[in-house]
Design brief:
The protein is of the alpha+beta class. The chain contains 17 helices and 20 strands. It has a 15-stranded mixed sheet, sandwiched between helices. The chain has a five-stranded antiparallel sheet with strand order 2-5-1-4-3. The longest helix has 28 residues. The two termini are 63 Å apart.
Length: 564
Amino acid sequence: MPDFRIAVRQRTGECESASSVNNRAQAIAVLPLDLLRQIRNRHGIGEITSEWEGTQSGGRERCGTITRLRGGAIDEKHCRAALRECTGNNFSNLTLSSHTREEDWIAEVGLGHGTEYVWRTARMPTNRSYSLAERLERLGIVIVSVLVLYLAFVGLLSITRGTPVSTVISEGDRRGPPPPSDSLFSRTMELYTGMHIGAGSRVQPVNNGSVYDSLWKDLRAAKQTITVQMYYSLPGKVADTLAAILAERARARVRVLLLLDAFGSQNLKRQWAQRLRQAGVEVALLRKLRWYSIHNATDRSHVRVVVVDGNVGYTGGFGLADYWLGDGHHENQWRESNVRFEGPAVMQLQAAFASAWAESTGELITGDIFFPTRGFAPLPGGVDAGLLFTAPTTGSTPAERFLALSIAAAHKTLYITNSYFVPDDDFRRLLQRAASRGVDVRVLTVGDKTDVKTTWYAGRHWYEELLSEGIRIYEYQPTMIHSKTMVVDGLWSSVGSMNFDNRSLAFNNESDLVILDRSFGASMDSTFFDDLRYAKEIKLDEFRKRSPWQHLLESVAVTLSRLL
């Protein structure tokens, strides 16, 4: 016989009513104490292995445990006869469950003076058999559950992936990786990122709201083509002005292509786009969220492109929202960095747009109206420049390699302005190594007027570590600073859309114009130090005194840093 664990109680107090007993989950029978002892001796219920006493509201009770049923079952008729000996109780209507076999039923005994309780516990076997269909059904549920959990785990790994580069080495060269002044630097950068740094591009900074003054003038002068790609858009004066100019040019038989990121531009109304289509503007949305494309939901196109007639290009951090108007020194007038350029680099920007347009519409644009022959010719007075266009991928990305090579190449100065500064472990070490070899490393980032508090807290989590290694950090005070620039040794500069965080390095399409020119680098250095006049330098001793609440917010935010 199988093992049973049967509890036995002897207690004093009033008998429990039959209706109360019948309400229990299992059928029961009640045995007087002397009959229980006879059953134990004659039917081999087992031995009382432990006894104890306790106090209950109805009086004192004596309890014990019987551990083995060695043969025979408790006889139901015998038990019913015994029940009648408990005066004043009517248990004759006690029954077993219909599915309970004789050897499986339990007795819960003792409802009054001089009686004991006995009941079945979890060790009682059910002896139930399952059909083949039931077994297959249960197996199917298990398999589907495991598959769902596995896919969820794979999805989590995908949306939290990082980048692998942790160091940059230059084997056999004691000076380390080549500096920007070495021709090997630009050649290496081309090989590792796919961009081409060519001569003859004219580059002009157009920061803050001044970008629109220049942009509206160039768009109104378009003769053949306008291509525009934007990430972030909001209804307002900027969006309406752009729409009016594009519609007017389309009616003048200029081919106008407008590409908007489906996520970043979701706040624009349908009527806004519909009016453009009615005027002849070709409008498309990039990476609309569908059930069959949900695996790409985190891969966004953060690119900014404006190309006019294949001759003039714009990129940077601007978009279609009114807070990009203004001078960048007042609240709700964002500080932004952008560039207007002409020459061969424009062709690379046009190619970046063509890639996204093909993804969205299936149409790959080419021909001399988009890529005019004159656009490839170097311009007099131009500088060496190229477009860094990055796309999301697994493993090491062009964006990661660009940033790692740039930091490793710094020998004198490294000035970084970035609105979303959340360096991972590897890039913090790269910055620290630069500072340890004597490079003046400074970071200008957003202050408490940021538009994304979580990212700000995540970045501040690492301030102590960076400050203790000699890296100087500043927070811009007047308003939100949205610039994304870097200057290395006053020679190698970049202006564009790429943030200093995992999302830009691993998940986003980004566009940065990079310039290898000492004159332009000097102007970028000057702009950086001008911005520092409106920033607060973070001092290590003072920063360590921040409140426990700030510590907590930073610790929580940094756990999400790969998603920000």
